[in-house]
Amino acid sequence: SKNISTAYRCINIISDDLAKMPFQVFASRNRNIDRVKPSAMFQNIAWLLEVSPNRWMNPFVFKKTLAQWLITWGDAYAWMPVPPPGMRREIFLLKASMTTPVFESSTGDIWYRTTFENGRTEYLPSVEVFHAMINSTDGISGKSVISYARESLGRQLGARDTQARFYSQGLNPSGIMWVNGLVEKDAREKIRNAYEEAMSGSDNAYRLAILDNKITKFEPITMKPVDAQFLESIQENDVEIADFFGMPLHKLNRGKQAYNSNEQANLEYLNTTLDPYLVQFEQEGNLKWLTREEQTYMYCKFNRDALLRTDAKTRSEVI
């Protein structure tokens, strides 16, 4: 699907918007809500989420990659193991293509079977694995947006492939040749290649084809109106794909570009498209990254105001 610019753009917009939002930790005590500051000394969860989730990634890359796995695979996994003595705490990304939840019916527990880059396979306990999913039908694994949009994406891939072949021949139509006598397979290929070589390229478009006496008849096959309409339907499929991802058209440089209407569209985009991802990240983070004691007064939350930035005039009116 990444060969389709619309789907690729939708995936990047959603993952970028999620990644650029600060993922913060708050503490509620005595009716006061305070933000937990990142501490490099204690390497608390705020430091992992806002400064350095692991030794290789910054927070933006970590969140963007996690979101892209979620959108394209339906599942996203992050592993926070108990660190060895003297080692820092880290949150590692697990590839959704190499990780599978395994339900143990005898105990009701879920383990995560994952294969690391070195080929080693391990079963990780659920308490150590952050697991976000979308479009789940069983609560154990999810299904990607693309799985639902596959039919639409497939139509568009076919349309673009047809369009590419159409224009690559210099807008020349295909045709049928009648040859005097019986022609074997190799001979048919030679005749076909000779014609295509003589008529290929934009310089030869719509020029007269000269055929020798072995060719008794040549009939070009013109494009049917329904086929031309099929190629023109790519624009409509782009809109359909945007609907699958819940993407406002103005973010794809389509639709209305008026600032006031786009500002309202951004708010709707946050509430209907991004919030399901954000809420799930927050709830799963509370369960897997906070201890039971911390869960009684602490919680993880995205700063959604970072997305709803307005111009100076609007901010002054609100103030």
Instruction: Count up the helices.
Output: 9
Helix content: 40-55%
Overall 3D geometry? elongated
What kind of sheet is the major sheet? 3 strands, antiparallel
Task: Give a written overview of the molecule.
This protein is of the alpha+beta class and 319 residues long. The two termini are 44 Å apart. A hairpin with a 4-residue loop joins β5 (99-104) and β6. It has helices at 5-20, 45-50, 59-73, 145-168, 185-199, 225-232, 234-245, 259-289, 312-318; strands spanning 23-29, 32-35, 75-79, 92-94, 99-104, 109-115, 121-125, 129-133, 175-179, 215-220, 298-302. 21% of the residues are buried. The model has no long low-confidence stretch (mean pLDDT 81). It has a 3-stranded antiparallel sheet with strand order 2-1-11. It has a 3-stranded antiparallel sheet with strand order 4-3-8. A 3-stranded antiparallel sheet has the order 5-6-7, with no helix packed on it. The longest helix has 31 residues, at 259-289. α1 crosses α3 (59-73) and α1 packs parallel to α7 (234-245). Helices cover 42% and strands 18% of the residues.
Quick recap of the structure?
The chain is of the alpha+beta class. Helices cover 42% and strands 18% of the residues.
Descriptive keywords:
about 40% helix; elongated; alpha+beta; about 325 residues; 3-stranded antiparallel β-sheet
Topology, please?
Elements: H1 5-20, E1 23-29, E2 32-35, H2 45-50, H3 59-73, E3 75-79, E4 92-94, E5 99-104, E6 109-115, E7 121-125, E8 129-133, H4 145-168, E9 175-179, H5 185-199, E10 215-220, H6 225-232, H7 234-245, H8 259-289, E11 298-302, H9 312-318
Antiparallel strand pairs: 1-2, 1-11, 3-4, 3-8, 5-6, 6-7, 9-10
Helix pairs in contact: 1-3, 1-7, 4-7
